[in-house]
Amino acid sequence: MVKVYQSTVLNAPAERVWRDLRDFNGLASWHPLIVLSRIEKDHPADKVGCVRNFQLKDGSRIREQLLSLSDFDYTCTSAILDGPPDLSDHVAILRLFPVTEGNRCFIEWSAEFECPPQKAAELTETVGEGMIQTGLTALKKRYG
Amino acid sequence: MRITVIQSTIIDAPIERVWAVLRDFNSHDQWHPAVAGSRMENDFAGDVVGGVRRFSLSDGSDFREQLLSHNDREYTLNYCILDSPLPLYDYMATIRLKPVTDTNQTFWIWRSQFRAPNDRATELENLVSRQIYEAGFRGLRTFLADQAAPARQPVPDMEATSLAAAAGGEHLPSRAVAAATAGGPEVLALSDVTIPAPGPQQVRIRQTAIAVNYLDLKQRRGIAAGFEFPGTPGMEGVGEIIDVGQQVNGLFPGDRVAYMNRTPGAYAEIRCIDADACLPLPDGVSDNDASTLLKGVTAALLLSRVFRAAPGATIMIQTVSGGVGHLLSQWAKSMDLTVMGTVSTAEKARFGRDCGCDYPIVVAEDSRLAADVMRITNGRGVDYWVHTSGARGLDTALACLSRCGHCAVIGDRDGQSIPLDLNVLKQRSLTVSTPICFDYLADRTYRQRLAHQLFTKIQNRTIIPAIESFPLSQAAEAHQRIESRRTMGAVVLTPGS
């Protein structure tokens, strides 16, 4: 099991950021690596079990299923159904915490997955730096 | 009325640094502005679940709070209030840290739930969230800033440059005492060396006090396993951290630490050491006193783990005036044991008495010793015997034990084999053990607990180490003095002098 964890502080209240992040179909609007996203079968984007089908900048496609969504805990859990070769059992958790001192929020994004040992370093980089950190950096800029 | 308080903040310091402070349940009086005093009941360490801290606030009120859980992996602890002058009922609180990975800061969330009378709910909610939690955030920030920039005395230029060089992880010039071959104290010689930057899991420290242990003498004489020539002896020291390896958590340049480990090489001004072996030192424990760590911890584990000593029992400590002996005597006395000890001179007997030994016995020959012990114990014998002379006198020790008595053979000096007839033990259910300190100390938590107990006893003067110090350049003289049995208490080398 490979684990990746990244976090940062966003300069906006948790409720404000959550309004954007709770939209499971909204990834393309803020993540620089993602160009197109749609929810399969026309399900609502906040329905647990719905599948988002999105396209990366490099043209590859990923299908991810929403496993949990909590407006109370500001938490969203998802699993990759179809994605990069060699990557399996990928589950990601995105969570916001209000920072009461200063009107900010703390965001953590972690992922766990299985892969062949020789691919672990490369995929840790792809997921941790490529996907997660790029996303967090974009969010940081967005709420500047 | 049920109240939930959640406060959170970002602290501009790595999570290890913040956790190093917060993980100690007994640390609030150091950083929280509202807390005037804090102490753990029953000498518990600040990270032992179940421990109770007794707080006094600056307004004079007293609280008792109990640590309910403590998790170094999740950076989390839970506690509850046991007694409070305020109507805070069923108060349970959680402190949790999370790393802010991109800026190397720390997210700190402090939350609690409690009940309060309706008419005081707002007042108490404000008190907890503002005066306890938010004030605590500010207090810790100030505390960490003060720690990061300690008011240093002006240092000589050379040290300043070497510290600057250290920041770049460069080699540092140092001096070390090495034994070229096995032999007497004269094989020890001081020479110039350079110390490379610490490995990923090491810290590099500038030593201020180096303990001389009996094991060092065995290393020099070539009868200690795992010591190669030419080699620098020594297992234990105290100093200030110069720099730390990349994977080191919770230790920082400028921290005062003591260490003990199996890897020799302590007789040096500067050395690299496994971070895992280092224990941060509390204020109120001097460098010299802290260098008795291994001896004090040996005393602690003999009493608590090897003998499981009970108050009122009798203990005989061979060489009670020695490094371990004089600490063990004070510790045993603090546990209400009757302490006997052997010494070689009347002067050492007086010293032994100062260290809490009720019956220091000057030994000329063994037969007298057995008679003395039996007379003092009314023929019952002693419950615990700490034996330091290997095969010599072991039969006397066994003869002097009470029924079900326990003899611990430590610090065997010559490395010669010790014959033992189990039938002798069988006659009166005797136990003979051969505890090696490091075997008991593999568990870091246990090691920390024993060290904490020792430092607490040193801080409150229950134990006062006696220390004879020598400059590092006189390591040979120090060895010589120990071998000629002229020392009392612990012997320490001080590189700074």
Explain the overall architecture.
- The complex is a heterodimer of chains A (144) and B (497).
- Chain A is α+β, with helices and mostly antiparallel strands and 144 residues long.
- Chain A has one domain: START domain (Alpha-D-Glucose-1,6-Bisphosphate, Chain A, domain 4, 2-Layer Sandwich), CATH 3.30.530.20.
- Helices cover 24% and strands 43% of the residues of chain A.
- Chain A has helices at 14-21, 27-30, 120-142; strands at 2-10, 34-39, 51-56, 61-70, 75-82, 88-99, 104-114.
- Chain A has a seven-stranded antiparallel beta sheet with strand order 1-7-6-5-4-3-2.
- The longest helix of chain A is centred in the last third of the chain and has 23 residues, at 120-142.
- In chain A, 33% of the residues are buried.
- The mean pLDDT of chain A is 92.
- Chain B is α/β, with parallel strands linked by helices and 497 residues long.
- Chain B folds into three domains: 2-145, START domain (Alpha-D-Glucose-1,6-Bisphosphate, Chain A, domain 4, 2-Layer Sandwich); 173-292, Medium-chain alcohol dehydrogenases, catalytic domain (Quinone Oxidoreductase, Chain A, domain 1), CATH 3.90.180.10; 295-440, NAD(P)-binding Rossmann-like Domain (Rossmann fold, 3-Layer(aba) Sandwich), CATH 3.40.50.720.
- Chain B contains 15 helices and 22 strands.
- In chain B, the strands form four sheets. In chain B, strands 1-7-6-5-4-3-2 form a seven-stranded antiparallel beta sheet. In chain B, strands 10, 11, 12, 13, 14, 21 and 22 form a seven-stranded mixed beta sheet that branches.
- The N and C termini of chain B lie far apart (64 Å).
- Mean pLDDT of chain B is 89; it is low at 150-167.
- At the A-B interface, β1, β6, β7 and α3 of A face β1, β6 and β7 of B.
